[in-house]
Automatic annotation (TrEMBL):
All residue ranges annotated as the RCC1-like domain in the record: 69-327
SUPFAM superfamilies from the UniProt entry: RCC1/BLIP-II
This protein's UniProt keywords: Repeat
Domain of life assignment: Bacteria
Alphabetical list of Gene3D superfamilies matching this protein: Regulator of chromosome condensation 1/beta-lactamase-inhibitor protein II
InterPro entries, sorted: RCC1-like_dom, RCC1/BLIP-II, Reg_chr_condens, Signaling_Regulatory_Domain
PANTHER family reported in the protein's UniProt record: BTK-BINDING PROTEIN-RELATED, ULTRAVIOLET-B RECEPTOR UVR8
Organism, scientific name: Leucobacter insecticola
Annotated protein name in UniProt: RCC1-like domain-containing protein
Feature: compositional bias, Polar residues: 335-351
Region described as Disordered: spans on this chain: 332-375
Pfam family, one: WD40_RLD
Length: 385
């Protein structure tokens, strides 16, 4: 319950009902102005036993709910996020049918009616497809399916869409707690310890040993011998995994050294990133078409891949960094954050600082000279309908 002071008295509000106490005539005019009292009620006469001057009159009004948004995930031109009311919200431009009510552009956070009755605990965005993780560990997808990224065994056309969430066809009994999406690819870690991928495989980013074609069903990644992944990140054309051995692995496109293995050769199975051997790595992140980042347990961060605009934050604009270099944080990093990945809920904690570096598109700060990252304060979103 809370109280609102309106010239002449207080309005106590509980849910959508307002109880008016000791309001003067001026107070009623104020209520009429904000729409809590119909204008026709203004002529009601006060009596000693009832009415405004005696108190106790119940006035019904609408109190707009405030929804707090968390875990935003960005696609190519749009954002999807969870509300604390259990619903899914999105905004931006989406031409591939993920928005419902049907629209191509939402200019503010809008309820996704097609995805708000599935009991999702987390949602993430691929380039043109949305994914939801349910409380039971099932994965659902909706939007574009032109590369089989829905994961139900079908491949759509460039113009067809899947408007409502469809269950991804994981092997029987397998549930998911770690999911990452970027571009037209998805990576998940199953409860059986196997990492699965689906979507396009144009550069071997599925990790099944082949290159080309689409994988419309979750396909096991060929894991390094004796290693399972504890975290995965999709970089769209390249994929990354954090091994149970504390090492980092990568596969897919490597034209700019995105795999960090010392070459620019594409890989269709995971290969180890050439990070310093005297450290154990605890966190990974990726930037599509740029490369990968890894944080060691001592707080040091390493980066590799494309760097023609200083994207890696290593103090140079020398491109194609095929082996990792120390990332020049203003201070030792406590955590990395990748927009494309969601760790297990039990491991999530609100990051206090995020950093930006390299060239940006219009609307952001343009960084044309190599420098250390700029610290940004993280903002929290609040939606009022």
């Amino acid at each position: 319950m809370f109280s609102i002071l309106i010239a002449g008295g207080f309005v106590k509000v509980r849910s959508a009902r307002a109880i008016v106490q000791s309001l003067s005539t001026l107070g009623i005019v104020a209520l009429m102005t904000v729409g809590l009292v119909p204008a026709s009620n203004a002529q009601a006469a006060a009596t000693p036993d009832s009415g405004i001057s005696a108190g106790g009159t119940v006035v019904t009004g609408t109190v707009s709910p405030v929804v707090h948004l968390s875990q935003p995930s960005a696609g190519s031109q749009w954002v999807v996020t969870m509300g604390d009311d259990g619903n899914v919200y999105a905004w931006g431009r989406q031409d591939n049918g993920a928005f419902n009510p049907a629209s191509k552009q939402w200019q503010r956070p809008t309820l996704m009616t097609n995805a708000s009755d599935k009991g999702f605990t987390r949602v993430i965005a691929g380039s043109t497809t949305a994914y939801g993780l349910s409380t039971s560990g099932e994965v659902f997808a909706w939007g574009s399916n032109s590369y089989g990224q829905i994961g139900d065994g079908t491949v759509g056309t460039s113009t067809s869409t899947v408007p409502d969430p469809v269950k991804v066809q994981l092997p029987d009994g397998v549930i998911v707690d770690v999911i990452s999406a970027s571009g037209q690819n998805v990576l998940v870690i199953g409860s059986d310890g196997i990492t699965y991928a689906w979507g396009t495989n144009s550069n071997g980013q599925i990790g099944d040993g082949a290159v080309g074609g689409n994988r419309p069903l979750p396909t096991p990644v060929q894991m390094p011998t004796g290693v399972t992944f504890t975290s995965v990140v999709s970089g769209g054309t390249s994929s990354y995994g954090l091994g149970s051995d504390g090492r980092v692995y990568a596969w897919g496109l490597n034209a700019s050294g995105q795999l960090g293995d010392g070459t620019t050769t594409n890989r269709s199975v995971p290969v180890e990133v050439k990070l310093p051997l005297d450290k154990t790595y605890v966190e990974i992140a990726a930037s599509p078409l740029v490369g990968g980042f890894a944080r060691a347990d001592d707080g040091s961060v390493y980066a590799w891949g494309a760097n023609d605009k200083g994207q890696l934050g290593i103090g140079t604009t020398s491109n194609r960094q095929a082996t990792p270099h120390r990332f020049l944080f203003p201070r030792e990093s406590r955590s990395l954050s990748s927009r494309t990945a969601l760790p297990p809920a039990s491991e999530q904690s609100p990051p206090k600082v995020t950093f930006t570096l390299g060239a940006t598109t219009p609307g952001g700060r343009s960084v044309t000279e190599p420098q250390r990252p700029d610290s940004l304060r993280r903002r929290f979103l609040c939606l009022s309908e």
